[in-house]
């Protein structure tokens, strides 16, 4: 329970401040725990980042599929609508996972956490669309929205949804 609460606070701190700025003392304060407790659960800043990414991963997947249509085109469009809400509410600076990789490109634990997240998102898009053959294309659209959100905002989502409709219509 405490580990999960700390991970939630770390996710918020990294989302708000990025990965370079907050030191461990600032993260301890953000988590409202002692330094000893923080290090007991996450023994390094990199472990804290992985904990935050894993927490966010679970939260994001749940958010994407919350009240989703069963499957097919409408389900994929719904996922992109959820992505828009997510970006507005929780990720105005872009994808936290990609920001983590950019900040720590050589860290194998962070890279593994990001790879798992991305693979799971791709798998959900394949399952929900019922189109394994389009999983990569759908994933690339998802990632394009996530990475361009800080510049394009809603326009990124609406453009992706138009392409989705064309892609799923032409290949059905």
Automatic annotation (TrEMBL):
Lineage: superkingdom: Bacteria
DNA-binding region: 23-42
Pfam (any one): TetR_N
Gene3D superfamilies: Tetracycline Repressor, domain 2
Keyword Zinc-finger: no
Positions of the HTH tetR-type domain: 1-60
Keywords: DNA-binding, Transcription, Transcription regulation
This protein's record includes keyword Membrane: no
Full protein name: TetR/AcrR family transcriptional regulator
Originating species: Shewanella eurypsychrophilus
């Amino acid at each position: 329970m405490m580990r999960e609460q700390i991970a939630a606070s770390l996710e918020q701190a990294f989302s708000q401040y990025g990965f370079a700025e907050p030191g461990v003392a600032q993260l301890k304060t953000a988590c409202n725990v002692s330094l000893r407790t923080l290090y007991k659960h996450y023994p390094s800043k990199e472990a804290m980042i992985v904990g935050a990414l894993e927490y966010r991963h679970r939260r994001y997947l749940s958010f994407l599929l919350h009240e989703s249509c069963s499957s097919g085109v409408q389900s994929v469009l719904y996922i992109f609508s959820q992505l828009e809400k997510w970006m507005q509410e929780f990720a105005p600076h872009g994808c936290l996972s990609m920001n983590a990789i950019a900040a720590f490109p050589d860290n194998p634990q962070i890279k593994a956490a990001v790879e798992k997240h991305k693979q799971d998102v791709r798998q959900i898009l394949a399952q929900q669309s019922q189109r394994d053959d389009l999983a990569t294309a759908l994933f690339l659209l998802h990632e394009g929205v996530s990475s361009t959100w800080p510049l394009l905002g809603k326009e990124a989502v609406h453009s992706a949804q138009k392409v989705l409709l064309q892609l799923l219509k032409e290949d059905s």
